[in-house]
Every structure is written in C-alpha cells, then in structure tokens.
User: Fold these one by one.
Assistant:
Number 1:
Amino acid sequence: MSMKTTPYWWEDEPREAASKIAPPAKVDVAIVGAGYTGLSAALVLARSGLSVAVFEAGQLGEGASSRNGGMVGPSFHKLGIAGLKAQYGVDKTNEILKESVGFVDFLEDFLKTEKIDADFKRTGRFLGALKPAHYDTMAAGLEDLQTACGVKGEMVTNSALESETGSAKFFGGLVFHQDGGLHPAKYHSGLVAKVREAGVVILDHTPVGKVEKMAAGLILTTPNGQTTADKVAICTNGYTGSAFKEFKRRILPLRSAIIATEPLAPEVMKRLMPKHRMQGDSRRLFAYYRPSPDGSRILFGGRATGLKDAPNKNAALLHRSMCEIYPELNTTKISHVWSGLVAYTFDHSPHIGKIGDLHFAMGYCGSGVARSTYFGTKLGHKILGQEELGHTSFDEMPLKGKPFYNGSPWFMPAVLSWHRAADRLGL
Ligand SMILES: Cc1cc2nc3c(=O)[nH]c(=O)nc-3n(C[C@H](O)[C@H](O)[C@H](O)COP(=O)(O)OP(=O)(O)OC[C@H]3O[C@@H](n4cnc5c(N)ncnc54)[C@H](O)[C@@H]3O)c2cc1C
C-alpha cells in the first residue's frame, strides 16, 4: 500500500522546525514532556508568575498529543462501576464518576476561554452492539451511569439504527450525548501558542537524561546543557523512558494506531456516519472511529500489532477491522497510517501526585485528550500548593507497579492476540 506514515492531522498542522533553544540555567519549575499534560500544567504555573521551562525529547507534538483520534469523552473508569466500588467503595466511586462526567465540559470551557480553534464539536458518541447480549450489557451500564453521575445517553434500538450508522452489523447501540471530537494537532498547536504567550520556554529536541537533587535544587541534564529547577514535573505518559525508572516501572506503554481513508463520496459518508458522531463498538479489542473534522473521510483506530511501529501491518489490521464494520469499504484506499504510545496502569486509573521529589500526572489508559488537560491543570495547581484548586477524587490513589515488572510489557502482544482471537470467535 502506498500511504503516508505520518498523522493525517499533520497535513493541516505541520510540525515546527527544531528551535535549537539552549536550556535556561535556572527556572522555578521544569516540566518534562510537551504534550497536553505538560503544557496545561505549564500554563497554570506561568500565569501565576513562576518561570517555567518545558523539555521535549522530540519535535513538538512528538507524543500522543498530536497523533490521537481526537475523540473526547468522560472516559469513565475502565474498571466499570462494579470494579470501582470493589476497589474504592461506593462514596469514592460516585466522586470519581461525577468528576469524570465533567471532563468534557472542562475541555470545552478551556478551549472557549483560551480561544483555541481546534474544530471541537459536541457530536456525541455512538457505540454499536454486535450481539443482543452486548446491547443488554450496554443498557444496564448506561442505567448505572445515569444513576451514579447523570450521564446523558440513550439506547438506540435496532429499528432506529439507520439514523446512527450505515453498518448493518449492529443489533442496536448506545449514544453518549456529552462526547465530542476535535482536531488533536490543532489543539496541541493552540496550546503551545498559549503557553509561549504566558512566557514559558519550550525546548524541543531536548531529552532530559536525568534529574538529580543537589544543594542548589533539582538539576536536569540534557545533551544541550543543564537546568536547575526548584520543582520538576514528569508528564511523559506512554513515552516514559529509562531516565525515570520509578515511573517507567509503573506504566504499561501500549501502541495505538490509526488509518485515514482516502476521501469518500459525500453520499457514502452521509450513509455510514449520518450524524458525524465519534464511534466505537462492542468488540473486546476496542476500535474507535470517526469522520475527519471536514467530514470527507473516515479515521479508524485501534490497538497496533505490536509495541514497535509497523505501519504496513497496522494498516492491514485496521483496514480489516474497519471492513468488519463497513464491508463496503473493502476496496477503499488508505491515505495515512500512524501510531503512538498510550499509558495504561495496573489499576486502570489515571494518576496524579508526587514520587520522591518529582511531581507527575499520567496513565490515562488510552483516553487522555480531556483527561490530560484536566490533570495537567490540576497538577499546575498542586505544584503551586493550591490545595483546593488542585484537589481531585483521584488523589490518594498511589501509582503502583507490579513485582518483576520493569516497564517492558513483553506479555501484552500475547494478551492482545487472545482478545483478537476471542473477537473472531465471537466469545
Ligand atoms: C494513536 C492514538 C490515539 C488516541 N486516541 C485518543 C482519543 O481518541 N481520545 C482520547 O481521549 N485519547 C486518545 N489517545 C490518548 C491521548 O492522546 C493521550 O492520553 C494524551 O495525549 C496524553 O498526553 P500527555 O501530554 O500526557 O502525553 P504525550 O502527548 O504522549 O506527551 C509526552 C511527551 O513526553 C516526551 N518525553 C518523554 N520522555 C522525555 C524525556 N526524557 N525528556 C523530554 N521529553 C520526554 C515525549 O516525547 C512526548 O512528546 C490516543 C493516543 C494515541 C497514541
């Protein structure tokens, strides 16, 4: 297949050339990672009058923040309500769900207040049920969520399906009305501009190799020089490397990939995605799909074939997965395929806090567009010591690793293959 292996999003928002800025000798706060988390934290800190430098190992938007699917939702906890209650009790569960249902409002307000044009739209999200039993599970789940946190959603019966999807594969489905979509790279560029306006120095192509505590403060070492900071925040999510072993051994990096189809005829788009919603379905190995913001093509994402980037294999896998839902796209060409790393955690929860001298927020488990903005902002307030503004129901949930796990999830390809096989067998 002849296709580009860079994100479709970068056609509208090409990456910036390397800036070659030298690290400042001293700042109040140094942030490692220039994705949504690090940039959101930097904005809060700089606007409170602190000097801030953000260090980015690659080009700006190298990580997940300019590569993702741009699908925005409350990202309810992956444990589900029953799992949450078993782990944290009823009160904490309700707190977590009520806070999560506000993530999209938070992001929408943020985009409006900051005047960032990222093509954000409250499209709603449609989830198709591939079996009657899946439909029943969705209905029960929706009812529980409505009771716990007032989420706005409705079931779509078989007879109403045509108004939601052109796929004949579903028995029914569920629509979450609060969800939406945006252009992730436009959002990232908009955030970079705001952060710079606030006086933050952003250093691209400047990987932080280590952070050491000395009498003068925390010393960050990079190939381009050193910076001394009073405080340091690690915002490296799925890209957390060996420089930060204490974080790496608590995070499961997983690769997620997306394909973009070539432009489709307007009548095909209208039939397949009549309401321009974000979409997914009830397969074990979750696939996420959506129309491009201009409505001209389909972007279809899911788990990649392995931990390393393998564009051809990923394109073939995702094309197959897309055709399981929309068989008529069998001969449709793929214009782009790309991938990036997301960060799972062993308790399926995002985390924010401090380990040793290092502040952090990470572990969005693949749903981080709204979460990372929200947690990055909270992180900024926490670093400033603003307890009330920094508070979240995710506080006091320690980020834990597992014995013998060192940060390489060698077992994940086997786990994913099992889920793929189970989907094929209809288990
Ligand atoms: C293909 C894909 C699709 C996705 N789709 C969705 C979606 O539709 N909806 C959704 O909600 N979420 C989605 N996500 C997840 C979402 O994009 C992430 O959760 C979010 O962008 C995380 O932001 P972040 O700032 O924490 O991390 P990132 O944006 O990953 O940024 C971390 C940065 O840290 C840098 N870094 C690492 N180590 C160092 C170092 N030592 N020194 C300096 N810099 C360093 C990296 O280069 C990287 O740029 C998707 C992710 C991927 C990869």
Number 2:
Amino acid sequence: MTERLTGRVALISGAASGMGASHARAFIAEGACVMIGDIADTAGQQLAAELGDRAAYIHLDVTSSRDWDAAVAETIRCFGKLDVLVNNAGILDGGPIGEYTEKQWQNVLSINLTGPFLGLTAARDALVAAAPAAVVNISSAAGIQGVPGVHAYTASKFGVRGLTKSAALELAPHGVRVNSVHPGGILTPMLGASSDATLDRGANPLARLGLPEEVTPLVVFLASTESSYCNGAEYVVDGGMTAGRA
Ligand SMILES: NC(=O)c1ccc[n+]([C@@H]2O[C@H](COP(=O)([O-])OP(=O)(O)OC[C@H]3O[C@@H](n4cnc5c(N)ncnc54)[C@H](O)[C@@H]3O)[C@@H](O)[C@H]2O)c1
C-alpha cells in the first residue's frame, strides 16, 4: 500500500496531545517526517521518542514569532524542507459578556488566531520553496456558527477561517494551498478528561462526541497531494452539529 505522505515534511503546532498528537501519529504512519511543536515539553518529547527517527520535538509557543522562526529553521535542519504546516494549537476559554475580561480575550486571540498568522508568516518562504505545499488551519464548528459564552474562542475560530481564505488566495500562485478544518465536539483533553462521550440528538445528530482519529484522516487528506484541487475551503467534521436543527 502506498503511503499518502511519503516525502512530506510537516510542522504541527500543539501536537503533544489531543488531535495534534493523533495527526502526528498518522502523518508518521503515512510516511511523513514530523516536527512536533508545543509548550508541553515532556509530553511532546515523549511522543517524538515514541514516533522514532522521522519525528522530532521543539518547544514552540505559537504566540512567539521567535519560537516560530526557530521551529521552521529546526524543521529544515532536521528534515531538509517544510512542505506542510498544521496550525493546530489552541485553547478553549469562555465566560459571559460583562464578566469576561479583555486580558482573557487577548489571550485566546493571541494563541488561536495570532498563532496561525505567525506560523504562516514564519513558514511562508519555506513553503513556497518546497511547493507544492499545504497549510491546514484547525478552526472549529465555532468558526462556522456562534456559541454562547465562548466569544473570544468563536471570534478566533471565525478569524482562522477568514485568514485561511485570504492566505489561500495570496499563496495559490506560489503553489501553497491553505484550507481550514472545523471539528465539533471531539473527545480530547480540551474538553476535560471526564467528558461524557454521549450527547442528546438535539446537541448532535450522531448523539456522541467524536474521536481525534475521526478528524485526522481529513487532515491527512488536506496535507497530501490527493487534495490538490482543494483550496481556501472549510471542511467540517462535527457529526452534523452545524447542519441545522436536529
Ligand atoms: N476538542 C474539541 O472538541 C475541538 C473542537 C473544535 C476545534 N478544536 C481545536 O482543535 C485544536 C486541538 O485541540 P484539542 O482538542 O486536541 O486540545 P488539546 O488541549 O488536547 O491540545 C491542544 C494542544 O495545544 C497546546 N498549546 C496550548 N497553548 C499553546 C501555545 N501557546 N503554543 C503551542 N501549543 C499550545 C497544548 O499544550 C496542547 O498540546 C485546537 O485548535 C482546538 O481549538 C477542538
């Protein structure tokens, strides 16, 4: 069987846990080299060690342009090029309007939206040099529809969707495709270890949360040349949550 990412070199932010770790595992299984970037150093180093010679870890705080520059340079030093960027790192935080502070707002925006912008900025020349290249920005179902109480998160994920489209238009002539992925309700540490995987059908037509491994194949597809005509688009993986009222 042909590996779908043979010869590809990916930098995945926030890949020490949750969906990012699932993406890293699948990318390695599909033949890619993967630089895991995260602030969770112990978990990131353990995952890189588990994944073997085609994986490495670097401390990457996505709010730091200096960290991004170092992560891109280290990816090229270790693996020779960078042709896939997965902007996956993110945090979930919320609170009612009137109580939610500007500081909380800025923190979510800086990680979830400025982070992907800084990643694109740092990786742009390397991606162009390695074209055909792909960027996969992890947004959310909250980048498709509003969610009460998580205003900064929703604004950041709508922002990621917009950034995806403007970058896709700008970078297409240079051989770099940019798409966004919109998961909804995935069982990861973000939702808390004690999350109940079952939901009522009013909340989700499939009546359950999804698993990271149910999102990863979409990210593999968008990172691979199989998706060569997919560009500037949003790909929803949410069990039908945003399809309408159940
Ligand atoms: N779990 C869900 O239901 C869900 C739904 C829609 C979208 N998402 C998005 O998917 C992405 C992955 O989330 P997850 O559910 O796997 O969560 P997670 O908490 O398991 O993973 C997030 C990772 O990002 C890292 N991180 C946090 N701040 C960082 C920073 N400043 N710099 C670098 N890394 C940082 C964390 O250390 C962690 O490893 C996020 O962008 C999230 O918003 C999640």
